[in-house]
Amino acid sequence: MPEIRGKFITLAGSLMSLNPEQRDKADAVLFEKVGKHWKELNPDDWYDAQLYKIFLETYCEGSAAGEGAMVDLGRYIFPTKKELGELPQDLNSALDLLVYSTESFAEDHRGSDIRPVKIIKADEGDVEFDVPDHGYDCRVDEGVYLGILGMFDIENGKVEQTKCKKQGDSSCVFHITW
User: Fold this and answer.
1) How far apart are CA 127 and CA 96, in angstroms?
2) How far is the C-alpha of 172 from the C-alpha of 159, rounded, in Å?
3) How far is 145 from 69, CA to CA, in rounded Å?
4) What is the pLDDT of residues 65-115, one digit of tens each?
5) How far apart are CA 7 and CA 126, in angstroms?
6) What is the reported pLDDT for 112?
7) What is the spatial distance between Cα 112 and Cα 110, in angstroms, rounded to a whole number?
8) Distances (CA, A) of 146 to 37, 46, 75, 78, 96
9) pLDDT of residue 154
10) What share of the chain in percent tops pLDDT 70?
């Protein structure tokens, strides 16, 4: 079973402040499973990725962006990690941070089903990743990569998903250019 750090469930809960009814709905499931509310989770403890998935899906249900909310949420992950002081100081470019994101994925996910993100290509302005199944919607990954580009004020960046598990492919492949 894939597991994820509590900080991601907390982030999803905090982004649902405009939709407290939706957040309460997801929080009730979380409390039933682990006996804690979203604000009470230890950020570094491990939780079933399905709980995160419930927060993501509930976030989308209550968002005007609908399914696009998955991408929006993903955009916040690395800026939040930076704000919390969780990023190494020597990440000076989008390429550096994109490559680091593969290490960060390994630090924030675990389980027998989890395999590392594979770097297919990592050149300045042209990166390609093979992302494993982590138990939740892969559009969050798209948002993560767009968020990283945004951290470096890259406005012309593109994230194209060339393969997708939901389309029957063995994994998701993202091609990131700027």
Assistant:
1) 11
2) 12
3) 15
4) 877 888 998 999 999 899 989 999 999 999 999 999 999 999 999 998 788
5) 30
6) 85
7) 7
8) 29, 26, 6, 10, 14
9) 97
10) 100
- Looking up tokens 């004020």, which residue turns up? 153
With CA atoms as reference, report the closest residue to 101 among 123, 120, 129: 129
CB 32 within 8 A of CB 75: no
Neighbouring C-alpha atoms within 13 Å toward the C-beta of 92:
1
Give every CB contact of residue 141 below 8 A, 6+ residues apart in sequence: 74, 131, 172, 174
Query: Is the distance from CB of 38 to CB of 27 less than 8 angstroms?
Result: yes
AA identity, residue 73? L
> DSSP labels for the chain?
--EEEHHHHHHHHHHTTT-HHHHHHHHHHHHHHHS--GGGS-TTSEEEHHHHHHHHHHHHHH-TTGGGHHHHHHHHHHHHHHHTT-S-TT--SHHHHHHHHHHHHHHHEESTT--PPEEEEEETTEEEEEEPP-SS-THHHHHHHHHHHHHTT-SS-EEEEEE-GGGT-SSEEEEEE-
170 vs 129: CA distance, rounded Å: 13
Answer yes or no: are the C-beta atoms of 148 and 78 closer than 8 Å: yes
